[in-house]
Design brief:
The chain contains 23 helices and two strands. It has helices spanning 22-46, 58-78, 86-99, 108-121, 128-133, 145-153, 164-199, 208-213, 230-251, 285-293, 296-318, 334-354, 356-366, 384-404, 409-433, 444-451, 459-472, 480-490, 498-526, 536-555, 562-585, 592-595, 600-656; strands spanning 261-263, 280-282. It has a two-stranded antiparallel sheet with strand order 1-2.
Length: 665
């Protein structure tokens, strides 16, 4: 059983006036749009800390801190009635939160390069045009080859421009797909909100700090209790010292560095041990702090299953098993892509079964059934009827788009399943475990190519399938669905007009889309092309992967292997068993770590998660609940210390053109 101290701190206060005020909405939109405009330049030109980059975007937290620690302190001193209340602070945070991913991995980072890539990556040597995309519909292509090439390689100096005429047609049609994707995101989030927030009471660790920052000060004080804790400021000072020394080392290499990263590449050099590389040990104060907020079982599951996965690789290497990398997903090994897909399906079915009564209520209300009047959906961002119609319209719309693009019904249905898994599983991991970011360990082509082979399917169709999933559900580190649920969570303990909040969210996303699109086109066209920027993964490696895969199977189709079905069903059975054991016996490992054991985020974060788990376990063992609560400000200081220093070094990086990254890139 989970002890009381294992549960993340919940902040509950009496309801206060609505936070969806005109000034809160305007401030949230202004800051959100400013960050949308600045993010591509900061992330991919300067290569500083990603302004969003995770499900805990530092820009949103930093703006809230400015309002709490500077603006509100001033207002409470000279005009207390004008101070921002808790609801307003959380409205500002929510609006920036939901818009943060638009200029980066949540939308534009892959959306634009994948549209242009067929032209700028194909040549007479690789023959990708004739092998892969010559027959895809014309409305999906940029017809101006020069404009596509300039996206990657730039125009001649003095001739820089954004060729809107070349982009107008493909952007129009691809934006239709993006609209349906966003509609599906809103609909899934609306469907899950009540079940996860009110019925199952998910912990939402990533909203703990924003809620604590928004607390009202004690009578006679100017700042919330958290900002007056000595332990909190001790942690902030320690983190600031760390990043000051490391950042100065980047600017002036003669200054000694503080090492926060070790690896075993130089130690594990001989078979079979070298097969478990990479094993890296990274120390991120923010991750340590967030890990302290997690339940012990979730935290243990995250780092344990990552090491368990490494153990699987070692056993496979000893026995000379063939262990290729994943085709489309973010997994280092194909076998875990299959296991994670099977486990994701098990979790999806479990989620549907757990929510069956809630889903029945949604259906009853949406279809105006006999019990419709008894079911209240006024607290939802979207009413149940709109949720149901949103799901139908979005999924049918995506299906029609993919059919028009050349996919058959089998590919469309499998891809819609992968989309649903991404929206539900990623949201479940973030809302349950507070994992900073998790990328999909699988894509539809991973499952098809390894189980039934690629022979039955047309190469252009598989390319389009791979490409659209890479655009929207491959790198899910800034996916919108968890952000919508987190925004809804912050409204739980305050009187909030949720429909007004919805309109504010829709407005900031619409405006953020336009600003992000312009900024993401301006950056490569006005700065020498994407290849000259500091993120080749965005402009070369990511769009190259679907093209290379499709060209490869055009020459040599991949054959399915029956053994891969065992991995798929093994993952399904393993996750289902863990879920049943926890539900019926209140025992066993949490399955959350199994689903993300092999992905990049766990490779980067597992050691910091381990440190947070170890620190919390020792404090609870010897200090109990009193010790846990007493140490909490210190660990929250680790989080906010990283946020403050990330923003400071983003500013320094843009002044010096030398990037120093506080968080994983």
């Amino acid at each position: 059983m989970t002890r009381a101290a294992d549960a993340p701190v919940s902040v509950s206060e009496p309801a206060q006036q609505s936070g969806v005020t005109t000034r809160a909405v305007l401030i949230g939109i202004v800051f959100a749009l400013a960050l949308c405009a600045f993010t591509p330049y900061n992330d991919f030109k300067i290569a500083a800390t990603y302004i969003a980059g995770t499900q805990f975007p530092i820009g949103a937290v930093f703006v809230e801190l400015l309002l709490v620690g500077v603006v509100n302190v001033f207002l409470r001193r000279f005009n207390p009635r004008a101070a921002f209340n808790k609801g307003e602070l959380l409205t500002v945070w929510s609006l920036i939160l939901v818009a943060s991913g638009l200029p980066s991995s949540g939308m534009m980072r892959y959306f634009l390069p994948h549209i242009a890539a067929p032209h700028y990556m194909s040549d007479t040597t690789n023959g990708w045009e004739s092998k892969v995309w010559a027959t895809i519909p014309e409305w999906m292509k940029i017809t101006d080859t020069e404009a596509a090439l300039a996206f990657a390689k730039g125009y001649p100096r003095g001739s820089e421009r954004i060729p809107w005429e070349a982009w107008a047609s493909p952007l129009f049609f691809w934006s239709i797909l993006a609209f349906f994707f966003l509609l599906a995101t809103f609909s899934i989030a609306s469907l899950l909100r009540k079940q996860w927030i009110e019925n199952e009471k998910f912990s939402f660790p990533l909203v703990t700090l924003p809620l604590l920052l928004a607390e009202d000060p004690e009578p006679g004080r100017l700042a919330p209790p958290l900002l007056r804790s000595p332990l909190f400021w001790l942690a902030v000072i320690g983190v600031t010292t760390l990043h000051t020394i490391r950042g100065m080392h980047v600017l002036y290499p003669s200054i000694p560095d503080i090492i926060i990263h070790w690896d075993l590449w130089g130690t594990l050099t001989s078979p079979p041990m070298n097969q478990i590389n990479p094993i890296d040990f990274w120390i991120y104060p923010l991750v340590i702090g967030i890990s302290y907020l997690l339940s012990a079982e979730v935290c243990f599951s995250l780092w344990f299953f990552h090491l368990f996965y490494k153990g699987e690789i070692l056993i496979g290497a000893i026995n000379n098993f063939d262990m290729p990398g994943a085709v489309a997903g973010y997994s280092y090994k194909q076998f875990h892509s299959l296991e994670a897909f099977g486990g994701g399906v098990a979790l999806l079915l479990w989620t549907a079964w757990s929510a069956r009564r809630h889903i029945a209520d949604v259906w009853e209300k949406a279809t105006n059934g006999p019990r419709a009047r008894e079911i209240d959906d006024s607290a939802e961002l979207i009413g149940y009827r709109a949720t149901l119609f949103g799901l139908i319209i979005s999924y049918v719309g995506i299906g029609v788009f993919l059919y028009a693009a050349g996919l058959n019904l089998v590919l469309i249905l499998l891809s819609l399943l992968t989309l649903t898994l991404a929206l539900v599983v990623i949201s479940w991991v973030v809302c349950q475990a507070g994992l900073l970011f998790m990328a999909q360990p699988y894509g539809t082509v991973d499952i098809l190519a390894t189980t039934v082979g690629t022979g039955p399917f047309k190469v252009p169709a598989l390319y389009t399938l791979f490409r659209w999933e890479n655009m929207f559900i491959f790198d899910t580190r800034e996916m919108l669905a968890p952000s919508l649920l987190e925004a809804a969570k912050t409204a739980e303990d305050r009187r909030t007009d949720t429909r007004k909040l919805l309109w504010a969210i829709l407005l900031v996303i619409a405006l953020g889309w336009v600003v992000s699109l312009y900024a993401s086109l301006w950056l490569p066209y006005m700065n020498g092309g994407g290849y000259s920027l500091n993120n080749l993964f965005t402009y070369r490696w990511s769009p190259q992967k679907p093209l290379g895969f499709a060209a490869g199977i055009a020459s040599v189709p991949k054959k399915g292997d029956i053994s891969n079905w065992f991995h798929l069903f093994g993952g399904f059975g393993g996750v289902l068993f863990m879920l049943l054991a926890r539900a019926r016996l209140s025992a066993g490992l949490h399955p959350i770590g199994f689903l993300c054991a092999s992905v990049y985020s766990m490779h980067m974060l597992w050691f910091s998660i381990f440190i947070g788990w170890l620190g919390k376990s020792l404090i609870q063992r010897y200090g109990g609940m009193k010790g846990y609560l007493g140490a909490l400000p210190f660990f929250l200081g680790l989080i906010l210390g990283d946020v403050i220093n990330a923003m400071i070094w983003i500013l320094i990086g843009n002044l010096t053109n030398v990037g120093y990254s506080v968080m994983p890139g």
